[in-house]
Amino acid sequence: MSKPKIAVIISSIRPTRFGDKPASWIAGHVAARGDVDVEIVDLKDYPLPLFDAAASDFWMPTPNEIAAKWQAKLNEFDGYIVVTAEYNRSITGALKNAIDWAYKPFIKKAVAFVGYGSVGGARAIEHLRNIMVELQAVPVRHAVHIGGSDFIPIMMGQKSWDETKGNFDFFVPEMLDNLVWWTNATRNARQADAAAAAKAA
């Protein structure tokens, strides 16, 4: 059986964003485990319009070609790590819009989080956990929170991410252990459901 595959989603599309740095860092940690495959998925590569479909992909095929490609990419994965900034106490608009375009790919899959903001992106991640529950996904308890005192000096050019990222290595193993456990559990359950449905057909 192939290894489960995890997507690391970069959810900020600003030219001056910080999110690509922790995304590469956490993807490196995932790859180093050896028990799952990992790929970075960048929202910049999917220039989605504001959601304007008659209904989500849960209810009808998507009418937008870019959104269909976004859904197809998400469907390749068994679990996700979302790297999110905190904008006005919530997730980025680009991420919310992308999620609104893609409900079905998240169903019965595990999701972990890396957040950054003035309080480590905690409020954004709490919103995102609730959104994932609505998508029938499994948000794990553990997350990595990068506070403003760490990422603002990087954005201002006073420090580099390479100087700072080691501060967060301690929090990674437990988060990934939980993510991989739930990724395997949900993957096995989805495969069992598919086998039962095929047998009944």
Automatic annotation (TrEMBL):
Molecular-function annotations in GO: FMN binding; oxidoreductase activity
InterPro entries, per database record: Flavoprotein-like_sf, FMN_Rdtase-like_dom, NAD(P)H-dep_reductase
UniProt GO cellular component terms: cytosol
Pfam family, one: FMN_red
Highest rank taxon of the organism: Bacteria
Domain NADPH-dependent FMN reductase-like positions: 4-147
Name the record gives this protein: FMN reductase
